[in-house]
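Expect chain and fold; see below:
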Amino acid sequence: MNSSQRTELRTITDTLLDGKPLTARQSERLNVLLTDPAARDFYLQMVETDVHLPASIEHADIITQLEQDAVARPFPTRRIAAIAACAATITFAVGWFVGSQTQTPSQSSAPSPVVQNKPTEDTSKANITSMIGVRWNQPPDSATSPSTIDIASGLVELIYPTGVKVIVEGPANYQVTGKNSGAIDYGRFVANVPKGAEGFTVDYANGKVIDLGTEFGFNLSREGELKLAVFDGEVELHPEGSSSFIKIDQNHAVEQHSDDPHAIQSIPFDRAAYVRETPSREFSWHLDSAAPKTLTFDVSHLIWKPGNFQCVFKWMRGQRATRISNVTLLKNGVPVDSQTEEGVTGFLHITKGNVYTLNVSEQNYQRAQWQIKATLQSRSDVPPNDAETVPWSEGILLFEDGRLLDATESDFIGTWKYSHNGSEWQRILHADGTITLTKNKKNHIDFSKARWEVKSGSLRVWIPHLKQFEDHILRDHNTLIFTDQPYRNAVRVPTEK
């Protein structure tokens, strides 16, 4: 795929994701362009977004005054050419997969029960608000409010207009049938129904479940075996063809067999079998001594497919920078990949080598207990016994999907906002390589001569008054990560039309 084809594909995809109809010529060109594997990968990256709002970490003011005597490194003279408008931003990922490409040997080949005659109301639909590790069996029919979630793996979070939240876990085929209803052919989900949304209904081949204001888990096999679990409140289970229903109370789980839908049996409540919240990609760490400390982070719910993953260790505050070493990815306690190089995270001029890439191969991938293990140690230039204060520090580990490592300049152009120490900041990355920085809506002169470029898919900013480079990566097309600054992730500001 050459540069002109890349630009053409971006323009067509922007039109599609904006909900506008394609012309016959655009449809024809899209089909032609997507026969190229490189174009398909680029298309995936444009429309894939794992929107996730990381949990905030409460902390005191961060020391931000950096040393000014570092040796200046000249900014490359190459100017970034004018680029077309940045890619449209959406809140979920689309995969270029069809059934045979996502079927795994462990999946049953038995035909799935199909819910018949499920009318779709012409009302507001549920919106996808978060995704992690999704592989699609079939691309959805809408960029923001699809009628069907047909996934081979991963998590999709839906929010209905009534406030109902549904987290669908693949493999699954779930349909949004109305503003307060759904249907499922197979798969697992957890629904949280707030006050005022009582009556949320889910149809399936052997009946329907009506929620009475609660949180419940639903697990339907391809063969039609149902496990229904109520975390809080109560639900009504209506077997197909029955005029009566069974009421299931909180802390109770039941099973319904496909060959006899009217026979309901109580079973143990396996709470660990359900994902009740979209998992955070952010993990906090704390050091309170000069001794090395080996830390373990559970990332099981962040690995839903093979590929590269990035560990970003970020110092947030403290009296000492932190050394990082022996970063290892484990599956069920067995090392799968590791990086032994030492990195450091702290102030901008100290941070180096704090981003580690780890790989999960096709052969190693499976749903399992996945952990990151790393050794962290406070960096000290004096013996610990002579230190006047405890060499403490704290920060976060960000565990990221490595899909957007080949991002280009056009992926970064636009306005990005973030908060730091109680202030609202915005960075506008212009196509000519300049940057406008505002603090609480006022221009910040320190960035008047700052410049930016993209190298190997990462954004690099030269800050003249600090005589330092600052690095960033994209989580998705809406989320910018500061890898060497103690700032929260920046979020893209939508372009006004």
